[in-house]
Amino acid sequence: MSRVEILHADTGVEDDHAIAAAPRPSLGKGEQPRSHAFALARLTTAGAPDPTFGGGSGTVTTDVGPGFGGDATDVALAADGKIVAAGSSGPTQFAVARWLPDGTPDPSFGSGGTVSTPILLESQARAVFAMPDGSVIAAGRALDDAGTGLFAVARYRPDGSLDPGFGAGGTVVTRFGSSSATGVGGGITPDGQLVVGGSYAADPTKSPVGIAAARYLLVNPPSNQAPPTVSGTGATGQPLTCAPGTWSGADAFDFLWLRDGVPIAGAITSTYVPLTTDIGTTLSCRVTAHNGGGSATATSAGVAVVVPPSTSNTQSTGVASGQTVNGAVPPSVVTSEPSNAFAFARVRVGAHQLRLGFDYPGRGTLDVLVTTRRSGASSARLRPGPRSVTVGKLHDSAESPQTRTLRVPLSHRAQTILARRGKLPIRLSLVYTPEGGQSSRQAREYTVRQLVRQ
């Protein structure tokens, strides 16, 4: 037996059952193997075959390709309750199978619930991951024509076809110099990267002598197709608006205004109103695009700042976005960006921590609070209070305008809830207090989900 997974109620199957994947089904006396197959069993808490699985027997056997001699080496559980196993078929190629929660081969995956993928001369999957978007990742080893071992990874779309956006047509091989390496397992990091570990040997004919590891991006960073653009006259007191441009693969954008190529403290929204102190300079907008694979930046063309045409009984002054420009406001009242300018942090949610990218507009402090509902509280009670519980907090400060990356670990209690329920609703509250100014508060809600196949 190769691997056991404990299943929980949030996955759609009964609580505290166990799934086990076996290398191959046993043969009766005198029986000849006809094909390579994976065997799967589900047991109750008493250790008996589950009568709701596999047509009442508690087991299923599924052909994964012609030939025999391969193995099912790993099993994972998808968020929708489907079961995925991986190993080899032949045993010269990757083999992956997916079943519905009752043990029926999933007809929407590959051919009758299975796929086989040849990689180099010979290959075997040793680890499998059921991703939240329905895709499947298999990782293991492959041998080249010289018999040298390499790490091998394949990514399949939810329908079982290879993902052409990953590696070369859906597969990747990694060579460790002249050494022979074998990938034997791995995991998905909180920021969505795949890590594969295994062993290596300087001579492929000898035993392994060390540990090998490789990390893979599962999502390509955003790519800019057309640069950002700035609309507006460039006159003081008249807003400029930055459009992010055209991107592929971007999930979110951050904005930063530049004065003669130098970042302006606190100018981190898509709109900026030129100040009198900006006259004679050139303003531009830098856009940073983010996704799970990383970040990329692009900058707009510059806009020259000029004095607006004069109007009767009106005095132009430079003000921050959202403030009124008229003769009743002395020019000295607003001559620079407000020190408490505050945009919500860039947030990446992981199973063990939150990672925040925060732009300090000036000297000040930042307080971070992460809360979740107490057991039995209504779904609307994520706000801090008697019906909520704190599962993470952080206090930070800065002496000058700067960008910080902060990590907020989730508490042991949060990890326990997540392990039990498979997901954890949280409320992230930020309080920014500039030196000598009033605090600004913002909050957002997220759902932390347990990674499939740990």
Fold and architecture overview:
Helices cover 2% and strands 47% of the residues. With 454 residues, it is an all-beta fold. It has three domains: 3-217, Neuraminidase (6 Propeller), CATH 2.120.10; 220-337, Immunoglobulin-like; 346-449, Immunoglobulin-like, CATH 2.60.40. The strands form nine sheets. Strands 20, 21, 23, 24 and 25 form a five-stranded antiparallel β-sheet that branches. Strands 1-2-3-4 form a four-stranded antiparallel β-sheet, with no helix packed on it. A four-stranded antiparallel β-sheet has the order 5-6-7-8, with no helix packed on it. Strand 31 (423-434) and strand 32 form a beta hairpin. Residues 4-15, 311-341 and 376-381 have low confidence and may be disordered.
Task: Provide tags for this entry.
single chain; 454 residues; Neuraminidase; Immunoglobulin-like; 3 domains; five-stranded antiparallel sheet; 1 helix; 2% helix; elongated
**Biggest sheet overview:** 5 strands, antiparallel
For this structure, what is the CATH class of the largest domain? Mainly Beta
The residue-averaged pLDDT reads 77
The radius of gyration computed from the alpha-carbon positions, rounded to a whole number of angstroms, is: 28 Å
The chain-level structural class is mainly beta
Shape: elongated
Number of helices: 1
Poorly predicted runs? 4-15, 311-341, 376-381
Classify the helix fraction into a percent range. Answer: under 10%
Distance between the termini: 18 Å
CATH topology of the largest domain: Neuraminidase
Total number of distinct structural domains: 3
Corresponding CATH architecture of the largest domain: 6 Propeller
> Care to count the β-strands?
32
